[in-house]
Design brief:
It is built from twelve helices and three strands; from the N terminus they run H-H-E-H-H-E-E-H-H-H-H-H-H-H-H. It is mainly alpha-helical. 40% of the residues are buried. Zinc ion binds next to helix 7.
Length: 251
Amino acid sequence: MDWKAMSASQNIVDFSALPLGFDPSFSLPPGPALNICVQLQNAILEHRLRPGMKLTEEEVGESFNSSRSIARTALQALAHTGLVQTRKNRGAYVAKPTVEDAREVFEARVLIEPEIAWHAAGKASDKDLKRLEAHIEAEHLALKSNDVGKALAYSGIFHIVIADIAGHSVYSNIVQSLITQSSLIIALYWNHLETACEDHSHNILVDAFRDKDGDAAREIMRKHLLDLHAGLNLKRKPETDQSLAQVLAGI
Ligand SMILES: [Zn+2]
């Protein structure tokens, strides 16, 4: 699904048209493979499955009473989202972006997104402000219903919408790629995801856009991104002594 096109068409909150879970594009029909995808996605987002943990087709299949081929389909669909990585002849693992990956992504965001926010402040129409407010509201509703994956998706789309408002297609494409990578990093390494989403920076940004205050928007965005990066816990967490089957049995 094209987040940018989808966001551009949203002026009211319509959950049926917006992403379910962390990734809006599990291109699987309803059925056992999709069910496994959603359950594994939640287990990863809730940190029950650790970055780097091996996901074998056998164990995944057995844990969900499915065949290996259904497990393989689910793992491949998860690999498309970036949450799972596959290595040739070595199977699938929960993705494990490094400290260096995180630093590079956030350095790039801090470099370009404050400028985008400055541009957007000069261009945001009343309709744009409503789009941004709808995303903030959707994020809060998702959090209220404990759907952290969906809240994270809305939080990321908010930044993509700002790039769209700025009306700069090169910036837009870069931001879209950076958001995908940083959503994964935040999902895996933020200690308390709900506090990341409760950040009020998005509301303050909308206020700066309403006031057409580019300098304020630039500074708010810069601080927001530095705070996000600082809130990550990239230290290696102790490995769980539970096996994959034991973790999945608790799902
Ligand atoms: Zn944000």
